[in-house]
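Morning, I've got a small favour to ask if you have a moment. The fold is given in discrete form, as structure tokens running alongside the sequence. I'd be grateful if you could look everything over and explain what you see. No rush at all, and the record is pasted right below.
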Amino acid sequence: MTPTARFENEGAVKAIISKYDPINKINLIAYPFNWLEAQVYYNDINVRRYYPGSKQSYKDKGFSFKLKIKEEDYLPAVAIGFDDIAGTSIFKSEYIVMSKRFGSFDTSLGLGFGALGTRSNVRNFIRQGERAKWDFGTGGVVANDFFKGESSFFGGLSYTFKKYNNISFLL
């Protein structure tokens, strides 16, 4: 999903299971504080084998977190996030995002790096240099890559139907 600057209530926990080939995913997301979203997930990447000659699909686990920088008022809410910060870092991304509500519409606009920056539609003006290439066989945190490499704008729009039990349509 597209990152937003939205947070659940402090103490909330949610689980998300998605089956969307070629990547199936299980997420556990917790909000231990009103300013922190922490996530652990497990991916099944079924277009790659666990090792050459294996019949088992590749598995990858990861950790992500998002920090609230600013609450929404007349200006948008702002957050900074770090996705897939440990492990193989296949989906490693960093982002700065802002979100603003206009009635039933909720908009988000952000600047992403790493996996979120692959469209490379804007020059990276924060940190110059290339990111380390990920390796299926190893893992770990590569903090030197944060906010390096290609960068892209991203955004999202949702509409909430309050009349129908707050069902949302996401774009």
Notes: The beta strands are 13-20, 23-33, 36-49, 57-70, 77-83, 93-102, 105-114, 151-161, 167-170. The chain has a mean pLDDT of 86. The radius of gyration is 17 Å.
